[in-house]
Design goal:
By secondary structure, this protein is mainly alpha-helical. It is built from 6 helices and 4 strands. 28% of the residues are buried. It binds a DNA duplex through α2, α3, β2 and α4.
DNA sequence: CATATGACGACAA
DNA sequence: ATTGTCGCCATAT
């Protein structure tokens, strides 16, 4: 247990978890890390996102900070892109923020169990 | 090995 | 609500 996974493996889990976030919902960096089996790994989620391979089809824009804010600098190119994509899914973005009480992804136990991306190892 | 840095998070003032 | 500090995990120099 509590073994240390290779970087690539961690990223794979994080990416898979991000892919599990349903449309119209968002998850925080820390939440993604936790589900991927990396407690307190919020910054690893950020890292995994930075190193996303070119041509990926991951809903990266569904990942925001725990306080519901978009992590990019307000007004920046990626910031606007993220806002745009979120809105396209029906997510309300106001002042660069999303109401987590409404849009936070809350996977139930079943949902987590179906996916091998959850905590345990295969 | 020592720092600096980052698409973070929790908390105190 | 804002701002600053400190903790976290990993990478880059």
């Amino acid at each position: 247990m509590t073994e240390k996974l290779p970087t690539q493996k961690r990223n794979e889990r994080i990416w898979q978890t991000i892919g599990d976030i349903p449309q119209g919902k968002v998850a925080s960096y820390g939440q993604v890390a936790a589900i991927a089996g990396i407690p307190r790994g919020a910054r690893q989620t950020a890292y995994a996102l930075r190193v996303l391979p070119r041509g990926h089809a991951l809903p990266w824009y569904r990942v925001i900070t725990s306080s519901g804010r978009i992590a990019f600098k307000p007004g920046s190119r990626p910031f606007r892109e993220q806002v745009k994509r979120l809105k396209m899914e029906g997510i309300t973005v106001k002042g660069g923020r999303v109401d987590m009480r409404i849009f936070r992804w809350q996977p139930d136990l079943d949902e987590l169990l179906w996916k091998p991306s959850a905590t345990w190892d295969g």
